[in-house]
Amino acid sequence: MQELFMLILIDGYNLIRQSDNLRRYERKTLEAGRNALIARLVEYENKRAHQIIVVFDGIQNGWAEEGRDREGKINIIYSRHGERADDVIKRIAAQTAGEVIVVSSDREISSFATQSGKTPLSSLEFEAIMNNVIYAPFETKPVTKENEINERQSKKKGPARRLPRAKRQKQTKISKL
């Protein structure tokens, strides 16, 4: 049986402009903002082996065809002249089978992702997950008898309060990030 992969499809400029940290680089130049994002994504990919595609608008460059580049294992796509990055993201998401997480705070892209059975994730949520993976040290809670007793006492009794199925499925996919 073929193993399904997880694709993380990122709206590049949307993530840069939503992030306080990355926006500082973009204020210098667009290229500095892109390079800062790509460097962070390379670090993230080194710790989590997901396929990552980041899409940028290439309208200003006037390319007749899509521009493609690669940094480490990160695939970078620049939309062709007259095409928005949003359209490229939608096309890739629609053509990809398996688990796809679409990272953008753009409502249009998020609704498209939901309608096509993909998992939308806001830029700020993804940045928080990415920062936790990159910067957080490996932490474990020591197993002691006190911890076990506290955990047993903190479990609530009574009827279970379950999230709706769609939200549970989204949480499961996001937990793999």
Helical proportion? 40-55%
Share in β-strands: 15-25%
CATH architecture descriptor: 3-Layer(aba) Sandwich
Structural class: alpha/beta
Mean pLDDT: 82
Distance between the termini: 23 Å
How many H/I helical runs?
8
Main sheet strand line-up: 3-4-2-1-5-6
Q: Over the alpha carbons, how many angstroms does the gyration radius reach?
A: 19 Å
Shape: globular
Q: Which class in CATH terms?
A: Alpha Beta
Count of distinct strands: 6
User: Segments where pLDDT lies below 50 for 5+ residues?
Assistant: none
Taking the sheet with the most strands, its summary is: 6 strands, mixed
Order of helices and strands: EHHHEEEHEHEHHH
Would you tell me which CATH topology applies?
Rossmann fold
Number of domains: 1
Structure description:
This protein is of the alpha/beta class and 177 residues long. The chain has a single domain, classed as Rossmann fold, CATH 3.40.50. Helix content is 50%, strand content 17%. The protein is built from eight helices and six strands, in the order E-H-H-H-E-E-E-H-E-H-E-H-H-H. The protein has helices at 12-18, 20-28, 30-47, 85-95, 107-115, 123-135, 145-154, 165-175; strands at 6-11, 51-56, 67-71, 74-78, 99-103, 119-121. A six-stranded mixed sheet has the order 3-4-2-1-5-6, sandwiched between helices. Strand 5, helix 5 and strand 6 (119-121) form a beta-alpha-beta unit. Helix 1 packs across helix 2, helix 2 (20-28) crosses helix 3 and helix 4 runs parallel beside helix 5. The relative contact order is 0.15.
